Amino acid sequence: MESNQSDLLALLGIKVEDGKIELDTNKTKAFFQTLQTSVEEQAKKIEKGIEEGSLDLTKSVGIKVEDQKIELDLKKTKSFLEEIAQKAANFIETLNQEINKLNQKES
Predict the structure, then answer these.
(1) Which of 8, 63, 81, 102 is close enough to 57 for a disulfide, judged by CB 3.0 to 4.6 Å?
(2) Beta 20-23 vs 54-57: how paired, if at all?
(3) pLDDT, tens only, 56-91
C-alpha cells in the first residue's frame, strides 16, 4: 500500500493487519469533525466573499467574484473537480483492495 494511502487510513482510524481491519471510531469521528469544521470555515469565507463581491478562487478553483461580475475558468474548475473525484476514487479503491485481501485469506 502506498504511503499516502496508509497515512489517510491511519488518519481515519483504519488499521489493516494480518488479514483484519481494525476501526478506531474515535479517530474516525475526529477526522470527520475536523473535515466538517474545515469545510464549514471555507464555506463561510466563500459566502462572505460573494456577499461582499470580493471572492478570488481563480488559482485553485477557477472562480472570481467582483462586485456584479463572476468569472469562471472552466478548465481550472474542471481540474479541481477531477482532482477531488480522483482522491475519492483512490480512497475507495484502497478500501476495496484491503477487503478483497481479507476475503482471499478467509477462502
Answers:
(1) 63
(2) unpaired
(3) 666 667 777 676 676 777 777 777 778 778 877 877
Contact predicate 73/58, CB 8 Å: yes
Domain count, the chain: 1
C-alpha 28/C-alpha 58 separation (Å) is 32
Using the structure block, give the residue that is written with the C-alpha cell 476501526. Answer: 23
State the pTM of this model: 0.45
Could you list the residue range(s) of the whole structural domain that residue 14 is in?
3-106
Q: State whether residue 107 is helix, strand or coil.
A: coil
Residue with C-alpha cell 488559482? 59
